[in-house]
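Dear support,

I submitted the protein below through the web form. The confirmation email said the job was done, but the results page showed an empty box. After a refresh the structure appeared. I'm attaching both so you can tell me whether what I see now is the final result or a partial one.
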Amino acid sequence: MAGMFSWLARPHARPTTDVKSYPASNAFMIAPGQPVWMRRDATRFADEGYRRNVIAHRAVGMIASAAGSVPWKLREVRTRRSRYLDQHPLLQLLYRPNPLQGGTELFENLIAYKLIGGNSYLHAIGPKGDAPLELHVLRPDRVAIIPGAGGIPKAYRYTIDQRAVDMAVDPITGQSRVLHLKSFHPLDDWYGLSPMEAAAYSIDQHNQCGAWNQALLQNGARPSGALMVKAADGSAGHLSESQFGRLKDQLDSQFSGAANAGRPLLLEGGLEWKDMSLSPRDMDFIAVKHSSARDIALAFGVPPQLLGIPGDNTYANLQEARLALWEQTILPLLEHVTDALNNWLVPMFDTALELEADRDAIPVFTAKRDALWERISRADFLTSDEKRSLLGIGA
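What the results page shows now:
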């Protein structure tokens, strides 16, 4: 743990903790000073949702890996005719953000945290007032927001091994060495709402279906039941304490567990077996499991077809489903991240720069892009410069 914490305490990365005093806004007042933690536990979302549920795990991994793989383009807008830069320290930082990670892994982690807990944090390391030298993703469960006046956080508190570091926020501009990405939450001023929370009931149902099925298989795929004792005249009977102990030991040793699955039970002395649970067919086990899986996929914006969930073939083929995933889920998420980086990271280098996600490098859009180029190239009423402008190419 000490090694993980050490990069926060490097000399060139030590955050400032002094915050100047400014008059609070009259429009929005929140008592500052104490950390505010998430209402729902992000650790439980990560454990029960991401670690223990295959549908949520695959949905998060599919979105995060796809979004993290899109390369960046850097455009200089200093002059009237903008141009794209092939080499720049900002691009080098994005592709090699720290000694232990590449850019794809860093952004995959950043987006995965946002999907799991509704919040993700990116920490810029470098001398105060200069462009950052490294970027690190902070674990959201270790970050607490210290509220400030006027609706702007006073600081972000990162705690590990009972040690805390406060990373200050400018009370006027809101600038900080920490970027907080969060999903919209209608009932929380500081933290975002996780898709995992919206799908929590469906995740519980899906997990319970798996646990029930596992318990059933370990019990020889037989539903639970009871041994009924009847007297010779057919009335209810009873066992002595020694008989009860002998019967219990016999059941535990000879008829329980996977090794004894299917072994016939020999009943004597008026004993009768009675089923006490519904069969898998009565419970409609498969239908319940698939229904909860579709709800989980819906919460994350992933077409169920791509997750192997039967019964909901909304799209004609997998190509259409992949295109819908990119257009409705991944691209809006990328736009959110891009806007945040342009407002937070890019000004640390140069205000005349602008980051873009390279959509031309996304294979799923190849067919649509080719059709667009074909239509524009046939438009005889457009000049060459107008065509290039429509295609996003400089004159």
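Response: this is the final, complete result; the empty box was a page-load delay. The first strand starts at residue 72 and ends at 76.
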